[in-house]
Amino acid sequence: QVQLVESGGGLVQAGGSLRLSCAASGRSFSSYAMGWFRQAPGKQREFVAAIRGSGITTYYANSVKGRFTISRDNAKNTVYLQMNSLKPEDTADYYCAADRRGLGGPNLPTYDYWGQGTQVTVSS
């Protein structure tokens, strides 16, 4: 079983930045693909970004491409989401997820483990 704990959310003004972190338990972190998803009130959970185990292959939703950067530190069992140029429409609960098979990508069912989420609010 893998436990994921997100941190770094908060309130920020439009145009500002936040960095989310997700710390994972377990010894196989470097083999997992990791993803970030978000869910705004009244909306479905949606894909934000993903990264494979080596950290070389990344995926982004079109809505965040060029503004958000996903990265990982396998020595620390941690994945990050650097969010720049934040917009009010980025307001949501952000969740990290782990895929044991290492594929990652934008599809929710691909992921086996989920964190509890961290709230991000962007004011206009």
Order of helices and strands: EEEEEEEEEEE
Distance separating the two termini: 40 Å
Structural class designation: mainly beta
Q: What about the largest sheet?
A: 7 strands, mixed
Beta-strand proportion:
over 45%
Overall mean pLDDT: 97
How many DSSP E strands? 11
How much helical structure, as a percent, in the residues?
under 10%
* Global outline: globular
Q: Please compute the radius of gyration using only Cα atoms.
A: 13 Å
Count of helical stretches:
0
Low-confidence stretches: none
Which features would summarize this protein structure in a list?
4-stranded antiparallel beta sheet; 48% strand; 124 residues; globular; mainly beta; 0% helix; 7-stranded mixed beta sheet
Structure description:
- The mean pLDDT is 97.
- Strand 7 and strand 8 (78-83) form a beta hairpin.
- The protein has strands at 4-7, 10-13, 18-24, 33-39, 46-51, 58-60, 68-73, 78-83, 92-99, 113-114, 118-123.
- 0% of the residues lie in helices and 48% in strands.
- Strands 2, 4, 5, 6, 9, 10 and 11 form a seven-stranded mixed beta sheet that branches. Strands 1-3-8-7 form a four-stranded antiparallel beta sheet, with no helix packed on it.
